[in-house]
């Protein structure tokens, strides 16, 4: 089975592209969904997170994601500590999902992961789709979506690997800076290219 990576940046529209691929019948494995699964109550990762980052659980014993985000945002050592806890478990779950899809006869799947390039997972993929928009579009969409200040939005965008840098690793680029129809057309062309093995 071939696996294609899908990545982008905050407010780039990566999730929109993932949904378009799903609508076209492509099996999409979502890294964020895998992360949520390994961080469920009762999972070993959650206990480790709670020990390493005191106070990040809700009274019900669930992970308070926004609070954890505040603790690690802009703190490289904290982010690396969290990654060391969750990434091996996410990868294990990813392999399990892949085996299940392959066993069911799926020949192409897409792995939707924001940190695909940063974690060097692109090297294990059979191709990479990068969703590209200019930084100012990321900022304006983030402000509109989250209600944060433009300064905070700029800070969050700047904290990530620039999309122009990610584009250097792309097999296919989807420019999501225009209307959804344009994006949908590009996704359909990429999907066809993947299915035809080009």
| Order of strands across the main sheet | 2-3-1-4-5
CATH architecture: 3-Layer(aba) Sandwich
- How far apart the termini lie comes to 15 Å
Biggest sheet overview? 5 strands, parallel
Rg over CA atoms: 17 Å
Proportion of strand residues: 5-15%
Note the run of SSEs as H and E: EHEHHHHEEHHHEH
The shape is globular
Query: How many β-strand runs?
Result: 5
Estimate nothing, just give the exact number of structural domains: 1
Task: Please identify the structural class as seen in this structure.
Answer: alpha/beta
Broad CATH class: Alpha Beta
Weakly predicted, low-confidence segments: none
Q: Average pLDDT across residues?
A: 93
CATH homologous superfamily identity: P-loop containing nucleotide triphosphate hydrolases
Structure at a glance:
By secondary structure, the protein is an alpha/beta fold.
Protein described:
This protein is globular. 30% of the residues are buried. The protein has 198 residues and is an alpha/beta fold. The chain has nine helices and five strands. The protein has one domain: Rossmann fold. α2 crosses α5 and α6 packs across α7. It has a five-stranded parallel beta sheet, sandwiched between helices.
Q: Would you spell out the secondary-structure blueprint of this structure?
A:
Layout: E1 2-7, H1 14-23, E2 27-30, H2 31-38, H3 44-52, H4 65-72, H5 76-103, E3 108-112, E4 128-132, H6 135-146, H7 150-158, H8 163-166, E5 172-175, H9 180-195
């Amino acid at each position: 089975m071939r696996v294609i990576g899908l990545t982008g940046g905050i407010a780039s529209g990566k999730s929109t592209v993932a949904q378009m691929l799903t609508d076209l019948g492509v099996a999409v494995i979502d890294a964020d969904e895998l992360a949520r699964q390994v961080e469920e109550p009762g999972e070993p990762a959650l206990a480790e997170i709670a020990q390493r980052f005191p106070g990040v659980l809700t009274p019900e014993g669930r992970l308070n994601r926004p609070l954890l985000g505040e603790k690690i945002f802009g703190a490289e050592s904290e982010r690396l500590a969290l990654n060391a806890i969750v990434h091996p478990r996410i990868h294990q779950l990813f392999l399990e999902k892949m085996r299940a899809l392959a066993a069911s006869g799926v020949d192409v799947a897409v792995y939707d992961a924001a940190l695909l390039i940063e974690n060097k997972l692109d090297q294990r993929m059979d191709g990479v789709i990068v969703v590209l928009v200019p930084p100012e579009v990321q900022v304006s969409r983030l402000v509109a979506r989250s209600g944060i200040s433009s300064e905070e939005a700029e800070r969050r965008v700047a904290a990530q690997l620039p999309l122009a840098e990610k584009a250097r690793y792309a097999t296919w680029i989807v420019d999501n800076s225009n209307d959804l129809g344009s994006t949908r057309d590009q996704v359909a062309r990429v999907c066809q290219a993947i299915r035809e093995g080009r």
